[in-house]
Specification:
This protein has 208 residues and is an all-alpha fold. It has 12 helices and 2 strands, in the order H-H-H-H-H-H-E-E-H-H-H-H-H-H.
Length: 208
Amino acid sequence: MAQMASGDDAALFTFVDSFGDQVEAQVRRIVGGLFRSDILADGDEINGLVLNVCLAIHDRASGWHPGGAPPWVWAHSAIRQVVISHVGHRQVADETGIEGDVNGDQTVGADVTPDTWHALTNEHPYLQLLDQVLLEEGSARDRWIFIEYLTQQGSGDPSPANTVGEVFTLSPANVRQIVRRQRVKLKRRAEGDPHFAPLLELPLVSAA
C-alpha cells in the first residue's frame, strides 16, 4: 500500500498477486448480496471486477494506515460502489417502507455517505425523526453502525451484520446488539413522545 501511495504503479500488480484472493472474496460477497448469480458464475466478470476494485484501492492507498483493517475491508464502501456501477442496481423496499433504487438516491439501499444521508433525512420525514433520536440517544459510532446496517439490509445483503462488522472491525454479534439497542431506543421514544409517534409505523421500530 505504501508503494502504491508513493506512485509506484507496478505495486498494483504486486498487490493483485498477493491479495487478489481476498479482494475476490469481498467482491463475491457484495455481488452475492445483490443476488447476481449470473455474475458470480462468470469468471471473466469477476476477474474484471477484482482488477477494477484493486485500481480503486490503489487510488486511495494514501489514506490507508498500517495496523488498521485490511485494505479490502477498509475500502469497503468504494469497493461496493465499483461493483454496483458495473453490476447495476436492483429495486428494493427496505424496512423503512420507502421503495427506490439501490443506488442510494431514493432509499437507504446502498452505501450512504454523510452527505447523502443528510439529503435523505431532509426528503423523508420518517428518516428525519429516526435520525433525531439516533443523534440524541446514541454515540456517533453506534448511529453510523445502525445507518450502515439499514443500508446493507435495504440493498438485499443476506448478512448485514457480517458486512457492517467487517467495516467497523466488530463481530456480527456486536453489530446485532448495537442495532437492537438502537431499535429499542427508537421504540421507547416513539411510545413516550407524540412527536416521534410516527416511527411506530416503521416495522423496524414497532417490532423492537
